[in-house]
Design a protein that fits this description.
The chain has a domain of 43 residues: Rna Polymerase Sigma Factor, Chain: A, CATH 1.10.1740.70. The protein has three helices and two strands; from the N terminus they run αααββ.
Length: 76
């Protein structure tokens, strides 16, 4: 289920990521949702939704890192 706006993201994402990181998550999730339609396209198996969430978190971690304060910060 792709997300049309930031507010549609799971609360677990909204509650921990800053707005820009939420946008990254949403776009990466939606892209992966389209890309991994067929089970044979998913290297780690699992559902389409699980694959999309893995891709989305990886995209966030490319630009953000979790700090010692337990908050996500843009990498410098």
């Amino acid at each position: 289920m792709p997300y049309s706006k930031r507010e549609d993201l799971p609360e677990s994402v909204i509650n921990v990521l800053p707005p820009h990181a939420q946008d990254i998550y949403k776009e990466a999730f939606n892209s992966a949702w389209d890309e991994y339609k067929k089970p044979s396209d998913r290297k780690k198996g699992g559902t389409r939704e699980e694959a999309a969430h893995r891709v989305a978190w990886a995209a966030v971690k490319h630009k953000y890192q979790k700090g010692s304060d337990d908050k996500w910060h843009l990498k410098s």
